[in-house]
């Protein structure tokens, strides 16, 4: 009995931060949920009793591309953080007969202003997100999307505004005509997905990561290659990335969608974004009624170490301001 009381006393005197650290360990097992035509791989970090924060990654990105330190910091603020692989990348799958697609041909059609054919749409990917919430018995969630994930998040908020407690859009776009375009060289790097070996694939990915980084940060090539290797060894599906790219190209302008959004919205964009220059973020915020806009000087189109703190400083106060309404998020 004395041993039990001693253990209880030690337990009660342990720092709360230690419990938060254990509860918010981002190294939880990856689970899968079968949604019929799609199987999604996801992680749930934190307590199911806390408000859910759903993270939606961008083109070709995997759930591991959300920095663990950022996920842990978000969880320690009292959120259950759910991150997942979009269909066709990572450990997720799109399980239908795969139609043939010629990305080069469709890119030409896109540049000529002609319709682009895609095997699925960003709206389909938004339904994936909502069905994942269904599977996790989450009625309402905070939704944070980056790049293509921000485009998907826009559709989530449009399809089911009653299920979105708050919306955070990072380094994303409205898809409207006339916005600044990335350079041809960057687009070629983004579209370059054929590699004859693992080594070539890693070099190509490291080149892309470097091109998406901030000019204010000097990248370590070996670190970029290591990041590329971790992603490659977890999953490598260049055809899936091409299909995701087609979904983006086939998407019409979302200005009308943004104009009708009626959920609390924060837009975050870097001033040095080479893929979606800063006016993309400004344009999104201008069309979402009541939205807040945070520009991060020097941030580009990657979650680089130098900008994790500024990013959290922009996101956390906003999420905390809307956190209370998320406590009724579980069915």
From TrEMBL:
GO-annotated molecular function:
triacylglycerol lipase activity
Coiled-coil spans are: none
Q: Where is the AB hydrolase-1 domain?
A: 51-301
Q: Which UniProt keywords apply?
A: Hydrolase, Signal
Q: Write down a Pfam family by its short name.
A: Abhydrolase_1
Signal sequence, renumbered to the chain: 1-20
Query: Gene3D superfamilies given for it?
Result: alpha/beta hydrolase (3.40.50.1820)
Biological process GO annotation list?
glycerolipid catabolic process
InterPro entries associated with the record: AB_hydrolase, AB_hydrolase_1, AB_hydrolase_fold
Give the source's domain of life in one word. Answer: Bacteria
Name-wise, this protein is Hydrolase
What is the species of this protein?
Pseudomonas knackmussii (strain DSM 6978 / CCUG 54928 / LMG 23759 / B13)
